[in-house]
Design a protein that fits this description.
The complex is a heterodimer. Chain A has nine helices and no strands. By secondary structure, chain A is mainly α. In chain A, helix 4 packs antiparallel against helix 6. The relative contact order of chain B is 0.19. By secondary structure, chain B is α+β, with helices and mostly antiparallel strands. The mean pLDDT of chain B is about 95. Chain B is globular. Chain B contains twelve helices and 23 strands. Classes of the chains: A mainly alpha, B alpha+beta. The interface between A and B is large, with 66 and 66 residues.
């Protein structure tokens, strides 16, 4: 399934990178062209996420689970792919839910920052996938300089896992509280 | 209020991402001597090598850095009325620093084709000594060949084809087949220089790996100075020749004894052990007796003096190109290409706590990764550049594991893709460490993955709740 994964993965990368560009354009401009691009954003994100799902599922079939979950690069690729896909689902849900109001005030910059973070996740995921099949890039050297040797598994200790779970609960609580308040004008 | 909560959400999200980044890779990897786990602080180290030949003799020169030389090895100390051993192989560095430095080299002439592609990995079999799942001594002693015939109690390096099943150290092929394999050249020559066991008499051990790691035929450069029945050394220092009967333990611990001092015991300076002598606390006798060897086992000698100076060991070894022992040695022939791999033991560490290289080709007048220079005369001038080799800590990666479903590259091994095509030394070192904590890291990685997805979900709920459109 390796060659199929290699082909399929081009679609979410291209679509979600394009989505990033669309978000950045819309974040800095209210011009008619930017608005027109924004109208294509939800379909773009939806197709990108769907293509990501397909590539992710096929990717899990490239090697047996026993192999991919035993290899540091394999583990890292699966971890980053899971996070990236989840993250872009968030982006889709956010844009869909908030509508054009997302581009009002400071939230447009929040959206731009989120898109950049999403494309960084996408880039790292792709780089790790390249490593797995022997196509190396210097991005791994950048990550090494930043403190992560990509040939070691990315995992965190128990207390960090706990902190993340607690943070997730707090964030969800904030969101649920927000839903009960009157919507912003 | 909404805006403040939006900022708070972003800060919380980025904050835990930052915490994750700062703490990743911690909490799992730690030394556990009970499981034979000790992770060296440095995972790679450099080695420089040169080779030369004159048509009669083959020369190798090795140079590698180490903070301090370890030249003491395997001692017995008089302690509480008994002779107590210090300096046996242990997991990680020997606590008292009594374990010698070593440089070793596998040589093959192409008769072991997997060696050219995977180097020493092919010699790391099932349940090797000092692995977490090492075979128990009683299991090995009960084995009809390794235990009962060869008197071994541990599983040492062996080559894959000497087993019916590479996943089972005990499945040794019949002896007639072992003999046939050996005759066909299916063994690795092992040049084995040790800073204590032989270097003081300017010699090196000469061994090979087939179904086990053996010494060549003949007499080696050292023997055990221990009487197991009487629980005392067989020999002591001859006071007439060396002015003492024993070393002083404190001198060893404080590393006071250097290259020009007596820190080793040879046949010439020894006398039969005198049990009636009034031995005092701290008297120490080397548990190895250095001796002039014989036969194929004593083919390799040190040229000049192998010494540590200014932070580097510099060792030159010499052996006849044709030793006349083709069942023990790889005969070196002009215009031929060989495969070699190197290893260094340092920091008072033995057994599997060494740094190893990937295989390299060595050309005698032929193109190869490393060139042996032909010269006229008795000794080379060594004016060619060094070949730089990166050595790495290999961890508990075994040949059975590499060929199993746990290794994503197992199918590439079956296809014959060399290790170097897919892995760097740094990568292999890190993988070697992670293999020692395979289950713990897998579990923690899964927790991390799921926690991250949960965080993204929570962040999504927060953003959607706070940024919902008017009237929704």
């Amino acid at each position: 399934m390796g060659p199929y994964h290699s082909v399929l993965i081009h679609f979410p990368i291209a679509l979600l990178m394009t989505a990033t560009l669309a978000i950045l354009v819309r974040a800095v401009s209210d011009a008619p062209l930017a608005r027109a691009i924004d109208r294509a954003l939800v379909p773009l994100l939806a197709i990108g996420v769907l293509a990501g799902f397909v590539a992710f599922a096929v990717g899990l079939m490239v090697w047996p689970w026993e192999a991919i979950s035993s290899t540091p690069l394999g583990r890292n690729h699966v971890l980053l792919a899971s996070w990236t896909l989840s993250y872009w689902i968030l982006m889709l849900a956010l844009r869909w839910s908030a509508g054009e109001a997302i581009w009002q005030g400071v939230t447009r910059w929040v959206m731009a920052g989120l898109a950049l973070l999403g494309s960084a996740l996408l880039g790292i995921t792709g780089t790790l996938g390249g490593h797995l099949v022997g196509n190396y890039t210097e991005l791994s050297a950048v990550l090494r300089l930043l403190g992560w040797e990509v040939y070691t598994t990315y995992y965190v200790p128990d207390y960090t896992v706990l902190a993340i779970v607690v943070a997730a609960i707090i964030l969800a609580a904030i969101g649920l509280w927000g839903r009960r308040q009157p919507a912003a004008a | 209020m909404r805006k403040s909560l939006l900022y708070l959400s972003v800060v919380v999200f980025l904050g835990v991402l930052g915490l994750s980044w700062l703490t990743h890779g911690t909490g799992v990897i730690k030394n556990d001597i009970a499981r034979n786990i000790y992770i060296p602080s440095e995972l790679t180290m450099p080695l420089q090598v040169k080779a030369a030949y004159n048509g009669r003799d083959m020369f190798f020169r090795y140079r590698w850095p180490t903070k301090q030389p370890s030249i003491y090895h395997d001692m017995v100390k008089f302690e509480g009325g008994k002779w107590v051993r210090y300096g046996a192989s242990v997991a990680g560095p020997q606590p008292q620093g009594i374990y010698e430095d070593r440089v070793t080299m596998f040589v093959d002439d192409g008769s072991v084709p997997e060696f050219a592609r995977y180097g020493g990995y092919i010699t790391v079999g099932d349940r090797m000594r000092f692995f977490t799942n090492e075979a128990k001594p009683d299991e090995v002693r009960a084995h009809p060949y390794l235990g009962k015939k060869k008197k071994q109690a541990e599983v040492w390096k062996y080559l894959p084809a000497t087993r019916r099943d590479i996943n089972d150290w005990a499945s040794i092929v019949p002896e007639e087949e072992l003999a046939a394999l050996r005759k066909s050249g299916y063994f690795l020559d092992l040049w084995h220089w040790r800073a204590h066991r032989a270097n003081p008499i300017d010699a090196s051990d000469d061994q090979f790996v087939s179904e086990f790691r053996y010494g060549d035929t003949g007499k080696g450069p050292f023997s055990a100075n221990w009487d197991g029945e009487k629980k005392q050394p067989k020999f002591m220092f001859d006071p007439q020749k060396s002015g003492r009967r024993a070393l002083n333990w404190d001198d060893l611990i404080q590393r006071k004894l250097g290259f020009d001092d007596v820190y080793y015991l040879t046949e010439q300076m020894s006398a039969p052990f005198d049990a009636t002598y009034a031995w005092k606390e701290g008297d120490t006798i080397p548990r190895r007796l250095l001796q002039i060897g014989q036969g194929s086992r004593f083919d390799i000698s040190v040229v000049g003096k192998a010494r540590w100076k200014d932070g580097y060991w510099d060792v030159i070894l010499k052996r006849a190109m044709d030793t006349g022992s083709p069942l023990d040695d790889k005969i070196m022939i002009d215009k031929r290409v060989y495969n070699v791999a190197f290893a260094v033991h340092t920091n008072a560490s033995g057994s599997r706590w060494h740094y190893v290289s990937l295989p390299k080709t060595l050309g005698l007048g032929r193109d190869a990764e490393m060139q042996a220079v032909r010269f006229d005369g008795d000794e080379p001038k060594w004016d060619q550049p060094w070949t730089d080799v990166t050595l790495f800590y290999p961890g508990q990666v075994s040949w059975p594991m590499l060929n199993s479903r746990q290794h994503a590259g197992a199918d590439k091994i079956k296809e014959g893709v060399p290790v170097r095509a897919r892995h760097s030394e740094v990568q292999l070192a890190n993988y070697g460490v992670e293999v020692e904590f395979a289950e713990e890291i897998r579990r923690q990685w899964l927790y991390t993955l799921l926690a991250g997805v949960l965080l993204i979900l929570g962040f999504g709920v927060a953003l959607i709740g706070l940024l919902r459109r008017k009237g929704a």
